[in-house]
Amino acid sequence: MSVTHDEVRRIARLAELEVSEDALPLLAEQMSRILEYVAQINSVPASEAVKPFVPGPDAVRFRADEVKPAPLAFGPAELAPAFRDGFFLVPKLGQFEQEEG
Amino acid sequence: MSDPSDALASAKAAADRIVKLKRLNACLTPIKELRKSLAVQASTAHPSGVLYGMPVAVKDNICTLEYTTSCGSKILEGYRSPYEATAVAKLKAAGALIAGKTNCDEFGMGSSTEHSAYGRSFHPFDKTRVPGGSSGGSAALVASGAVPAALGSETGGSVRQPASLCGVVGIKPTYGRVSRYGIVAYASSLDQAGPFATTVADTALLLEAMWGHDPCDSTSIPSEPEPVLARLEEGVAGLRVGVVEELTDVEGIQPAVRAAVDSARNLFEKAGAEVDTVSVPSVEYGLSAYYIIAPAEASSNLARYDGVRYGLRAPAAEVATMNALTREAGFGAEVKRRIMLGTYALSAGYYDAYYGQAQRVRTLIIRDFSRAYERFDVLLAPTSPTTAFELGAKTSDPLAMYLSDVCTIPTNLTGATAISVPAGLDAAGLPIGVQVLAPALGEAVLLRAARSLEAGFAFTARPTLGEAA
Hints:
The complex is a heterodimer.
Chain A: H1 5-14, H2 24-38, E1 83-84, E2 87-88, H3 95-100
Antiparallel strand pairs in A: 1-2
Helix pairs in contact in A: 1-2
Chain B: H1 4-20, H2 31-44, E1 55-59, H3 86-93, E2 97-102, H4 136-143, E3 149-154, H5 160-166, E4 169-172, E5 192-197, H6 200-210, E6 240-244, H7 245-248, H8 255-270, E7 274-278, H9 286-301, H10 319-330, H11 333-346, H12 351-375, E8 378-382, H13 398-402, H14 409-414, E9 417-425, E10 431-438, H15 443-457
Parallel strand pairs in B: 1-2, 1-3, 6-7, 6-8
Antiparallel strand pairs in B: 3-5, 4-5, 4-9, 8-10, 9-10
Helix pairs in contact in B: 1-2, 9-11, 9-12
């Protein structure tokens, strides 16, 4: 299993990570080695066909639909990098705004 | 202890010991803040609680109101949670004093506590070695006597492995027994908090204080757990113990660790247990399945760190660039590596071969353990293939680091329970741990078996405060 530099770039975009060109070779090599190792799960005998494990409770347990005060010591304004009038502030949405314009 | 002045003295003594052990880099809380908070907590703690006045340090990925919760990450530097973890609230309700936040591998991703944005922690017996991880700070503080107990969390063995390396007791409870509310998510189907202490009895005491159903965690088990502390001394006569072949003969196992498992087997037999070997064939795929499932879940869970709602934000003119620059600047190399691996495993064209197959293997491992528990009440295995390794020995080889977890990971994949108990020292004077495993909800028999081993091994090695690291 060999991961190419282009694949690392593509995965980094999906993962919203800014991987520098300098970091590509080592990351590609490490990912290749790890993926080669974990690929041994595909050597499980076909006779061992079972259903995939599904995480989570067997059934959704509903709670009473009651309005309760949020048990927070303080609100999002204290935590957000930028917050005004009840809204989180972010930079321009870039391509989306251009498309709308 | 029932007097506030006793609690205050206990808090002050703990803070003094933590200062003395600063060189372990095990506690991330600034000492002034720690002293101030402990004094306030001591004056308001519940005197009738079973943990009244007991200082308990808490891993930095578990939310507290008293201190920041950075998860060992730059992306959450200075982050104060607006709520506290249920496990922490329960410890406080029992009278415990939260004695600072402990260093850990970033977001719990590591086996040595070398992957923290706040520097690595050191082994309390040997300053050239790691304390294990990811809850290495918690283990080191308990082993060195700074605090009598600490809270850690496990995704693939991050309580049991550092407990083994530092010579203390550490338990991974059944998935859903301890609420995950307020424990910062790494891999939600695997994460579970667990206590460290120097004795099995203290571990059981903490467990009884912190477990139970929590409506704030949808995976919390709705039934109330049975008491475990009262049954600790019931012994193991007639108990059926299976020694897991695949974990005991795992590649690269240190001879002294292998010998410790044999000693544990002999101790069980002497105490009246019926011991035999057992094969759990699919565990050989456990590590591979884990290093697909955990990164896959991490890639999803850590998507929330985008520079918008809390945590670090890198300046940029456009939001997508801001997201990527924030994550690049805020996450360390190991976290980024796991996010990349998880994203790869979940991406189109690879999903079924990696994530889907890993979940099939998980089903197989659960099935094989169920078969083993038809013959045995508990299982026995090494906790870690080796004792504490040297600082930096595995940081440049992620796969070598991952192999440290080979014996602990199967329990996380099955959602069952296991405990590491100190079993002696190797020739270099480093602690060895063995683990007892039990089926889900089997904490009573697990702790009883662990107590029997503890009595047999009679492990007492501790670094003195002046000598630690």
